[in-house]
Amino acid sequence: MGPPGLEPVRGGRQLWVADATQHLVCWWYKAFEGPSGTDYHERSYRYIAMRARQLCGITTDEQAVCWDERYEWNPAPMARFVSVVPDSRVGCGLDAAGLISCWGLDLTPDHDFGSEVFVQISSRLGLMALTPSGEVVTRPSTVLRRPPPARSFAEISNGDGSQCGIDGSGQATCWSMVDENGNWDAPPGKYLMTAAGMHDGSAKSYNCAIRDDLKVVCWGSLAAEEPPPDGQFLEISVSRNEGCGIRTDGGVVCWRGNGKDEDLSALRAWTD
Q: Which distant-in-sequence residues (6+ apart) come within 8 Å of 181 by Cβ?
């Protein structure tokens, strides 16, 4: 079986992936299982996404659900969602028609995307969406100190103080959400996906991407301290200066620098 379309996601000090049975798996500290009386951690998922200590997923029976350790904010609208993301006790889903619908406990006007069509949605510090023409839309707009670079993007990611994108030529670049002068291009090369990491408003920054040879490349002031592992990867996720990835064989590995890589190959994201 090939990759199930799930990504390794890190939030706070917990990390979740899907194993070969498409159930959620967690390690590093006690994972929250949802409010008392719920069974979210026992369901099967085809997609998961995390923001801090909030989680959204699409179950294998096509139900979108969102929760944290204390609250749940469901039900979601009836739609065929391609992806879902949490945003401060709000869930937002991108459906097969390219429309974004949001639901939850703390809805604001910023969660109304109307009838505009998008191809990707991401969440970390605010919501970030990509139009078919490659324009980046951020909600709320006040979260950004500077707009994204004036170019058309094919892929985007949202991080802790930084955002990243890949343009039509395959070049990856990141820009700061908290510093008007923060802007970092990836080392030369063509890239397939980005994983925005962090920028704290000072000189500290850390972002990663998968190059077209499936190797992980990280850059920024912390890149030398937190180098990614060798090997080929299909999915990566970065939070602050830590990362996790799914290798091409389905094995999982996480890195935290200083020789603290954790080879979790026994936990397969899928099996052949």
A: none
CATH number, domain 1-115: 2.130.10.30
pLDDT for the residue numbered 203: 65
Report yes or no: 70 and 35 within 8 Å, Cβ to Cβ: yes
What are the φ/ψ torsions at residue 195 (nearest 5 degrees)? Answer: -135, 95
The answer to whether residue 27 scores a pLDDT higher than 80 is no
CATH topology of domain 144-264: Methylamine Dehydrogenase; Chain H (2.130.10)
Is pLDDT larger for residue 251 or for residue 72? Answer: 72
Q: Are 53 and 14 in contact (CB under 8 A)?
A: yes
Nearest 10 degrees: CA dihedral of 129, 170, 225, 160?
-10
* Contact of 146 with 189, CB cutoff 8 Å: no
Candidates 34, 24, 16, 26; CA nearest to 71 is 34
Sequence ranges of the chain with CATH classification 2.130.10.30: 1-115, 144-264
